[in-house]
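Recall from the previous lesson that a structure prediction takes nothing but the amino acid sequence as input. Here we apply that procedure to UspA domain-containing protein from Cutibacterium acnes. The sequence below is the only information supplied.
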Amino acid sequence: MTDHQPVHEQVRVQDQTDHGPRRTPGRYQRSPRGTMKCRPVIVAIMPGIPKPVLETGVEYAKAMGSKIVFAHVATDRVSSPSNPDTSHPLDPTAQRISMETAKSAIYSALDAFMSDYPEADWELVYLSGLPDQQLAHLAHTINAGCFVLGTRRPGFRAGVQEWLDGSVAVQLGRRQLRPVIIVPLRGEDWKHPLCS
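The prediction returns the following tokens.
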């Protein structure tokens, strides 16, 4: 190594092993591909979601100068293996509203809510399948900066459902490196939903 090499080159060479670059213990790896500034904020939504979750997502996006991507995952549908842009109901005999009707209702409610934030850039992404997997895949696809999620609905039934399905926030924390912002919700917050 010569004395005229830049310092960063010397450090890079010192961090090499016989098997490639060595990870220094204790080095914190931030969100993938750099800072969160100007990267999309994913706000996970569902029918009946309390408005404080949306408001928190909008505030984070404004602070970071980012676009808001509202993501709804239909858990009663599964993506088609031949065409990922289409999905099919898990139980074709069950009486369910069509995907287009559900997406239209959510979009209309979001459009009314976002009219209070005319400067915000936003879109709705409608997904189907397992929420943690679909949200992680979306984040990777759009290089999102973070996730914003609400806590579960209060009550025994919602608690049992979360225990059976697993917490989406916990699963996201395990599957990828982006920050997961959890908005704490109280019982009265659920009285002011985005849409039912």
